[in-house]
User: Which sequence fits this backbone?
């Protein structure tokens, strides 16, 4: 790792000012950026630690939405009674990604800013139709995700909170890579004020919606409704862990399990 | 150079570090607490697990400057001053939960956090899931799981002394 300056601002405005330097990077939980810096994939002039900023913390219900501060750690989200009551599938997801030590440090904001194709939260955010609140604006989930490690965030723009509409039902199922334990293929299904939405992660270069499954579940909310739908492997990832055809097959299997998980 | 003030095993320290200094480097190289091991340095093996403000973390994946102001506990801080082992250490000894011992400091630190978070006790399956972030190349995990299952009974006061391992 190359050396860098380290700043720990206590307000969002201070953080934004420090990140006006195009070579400065935010650090939340550090569970992705520190391994990347060890590999010298980047050479920031400064790291700006977001953990001291009160505006980025806290989980609360605001009417029909759950608002999760970007700096909320996975372990916090998994144990939070508000999340568990309103969106139990999201609480389970947070408690089931990475390992205990990663969950004790890693944050929702860091994961969604990074948008690893094999990460978990992108499926929940797209599947629930979340709104991304940043230091500049509000971005809908359908505009936020832009493919592999790409989001609508601009340089220097910080995620401050993610707002999830409370669904009637939501469920998630994933097949984990047996070595890295990241997502090989996952499916998040939700029904509620956002309509019926189905989001697929791990399988493609970025999280995407499965329109055919959405239509089938809107007509008939049951595992049988998606059992016969085949995902095309054409745009999916194939690698040493599994072919595109295998991942396409998993989309159907995980969709069935996600509907059962939602109940 | 940034300076970091933290307590380690109850002792206050102020140490000059670089921005990029990892917590594990501060512990091993500056404070000479070499009980915390580095197995992979890529956030996967858990040999480097310590407690920061009571939570288990991989000390190879947190900067020393991020731990400024924190209370850190390492494997060296578990036994009583008279040498009496922590119940988890005692259980690892009794159940022969180690072979080469390289993963052991991290296993013990993870196990203590895990037991603390499950006051009602864990099944064998839950213990195995809880150890996802700790790799062991020797034991096949069975005796580690048995040790933790036995230690949780003592730590949560359901037994006064450790159940002896079968001969
Ligand atoms: C062993 C291991 C296993 C893992 N397994 C999984 C898994 O199964 N599923 C999964 O989803 N994830 C997994 N992860 C990743 C983990 O969830 C990370 O915590 C997460 O991806 C990044 O969150 P962080 O808070 O650590 O972010 P950091 O590493 O601090 O930051 C990540 C990136 O986001 C930027 N950033 C951080 N915060 C903000 C913000 N508020 N606004 C804008 N940009 C920001 C940073 O500059 C950096 O580029 C794993 C990680 C490890 C080490
Ligand atoms: S040395 Fe830290 S996880 Fe392996
Ligand atoms: S005892 Fe050798 S690595 Fe676990």
Assistant:
């Amino acid at each position: 790792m190359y050396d860098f300056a380290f700043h720990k601002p206590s307000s969002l405005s201070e953080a934004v000012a420090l990140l006006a330097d195009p070579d400065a990077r935010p650090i939340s939980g550090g569970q992705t950026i520190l391994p990347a810096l060890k590999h010298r994939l980047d050479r920031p002039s400064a790291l700006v630690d977001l953990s001291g900023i009160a505006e980025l913390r806290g989980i609360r219900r605001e009417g029909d939405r759950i608002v999760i501060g970007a700096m909320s750690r996975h372990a916090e989200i998994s144990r939070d009674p508000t999340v568990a009551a309103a969106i139990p599938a999201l609480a389970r997801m947070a408690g089931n990604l990475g390992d205990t030590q990663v969950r004790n440090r890693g944050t929702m904001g860091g994961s969604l800013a990074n948008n690893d194709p094999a990460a978990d939260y992108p499926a929940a955010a797209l599947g629930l139709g979340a709104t991304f609140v940043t230091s500049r604006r509000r971005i809908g989930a359908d505009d936020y995700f832009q493919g592999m490690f790409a989001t609508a965030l601009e340089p220097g723009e910080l995620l401050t909170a993610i707002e999830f509409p409370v669904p009637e039902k939501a469920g998630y199922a994933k097949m984990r890579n047996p070595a890295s334990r990241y997502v090989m293929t996952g499916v998040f299904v939700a029904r509620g004020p956002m309509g019926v939405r189905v989001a697929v992660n791990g399988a493609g270069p970025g999280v995407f919606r499965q329109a055919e499954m959405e239509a089938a579940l809107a007509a008939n909310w049951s595992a049988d409704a998606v059992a016969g739908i085949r995902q095309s492997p054409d745009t999916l990832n194939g690698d040493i862990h599994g072919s595109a055809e295998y991942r396409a097959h998993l989309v159907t299997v995980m969709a069935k399990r996600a509907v059962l998980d939602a109940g | 150079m940034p300076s970091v003030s933290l307590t380690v095993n109850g002792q206050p320290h102020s140490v000059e570090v670089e921005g990029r200094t990892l917590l594990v480097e501060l512990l091993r190289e500056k404070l000479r607490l070499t009980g915390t091991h580095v197995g992979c340095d890529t956030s996967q093996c858990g040999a480097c697990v310590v407690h920061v403000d009571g939570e288990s973390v991989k000390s190879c994946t947190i900067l020393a400057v991020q731990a400024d102001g924190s209370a850190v506990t390492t494997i060296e801080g578990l036994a009583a001053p008279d040498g009496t082992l922590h119940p988890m250490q005692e259980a690892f000894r009794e159940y022969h939960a180690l072979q080469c011992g390289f993963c052991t400091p991290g296993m013990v630190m993870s196990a203590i956090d895990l037991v603390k978070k499950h006051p009602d006790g864990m099944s064998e399956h839950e213990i195995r899931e809880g150890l996802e972030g700790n790799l062991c190349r020797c034991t096949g995990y069975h005796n580690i799981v048995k040790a933790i299952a036995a230690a949780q009974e003592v730590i949560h006061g359901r037994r006064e002394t450790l159940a002896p391992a079968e001969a």
Q: What stands out?
A: The beta strands of chain B are 3-8, 11-16, 49-52, 55-58, 71-73. Helices of chain B lie at 23-30, 87-94, 104-117, 124-130, 142-155. Chain B touches chain A at residues 2, 18-20, 22, 41-43, 46, 49, 55-58, 61-63, 65-66, 68, 110, 113-114, 130, 132-134 (CB under 8 Å).
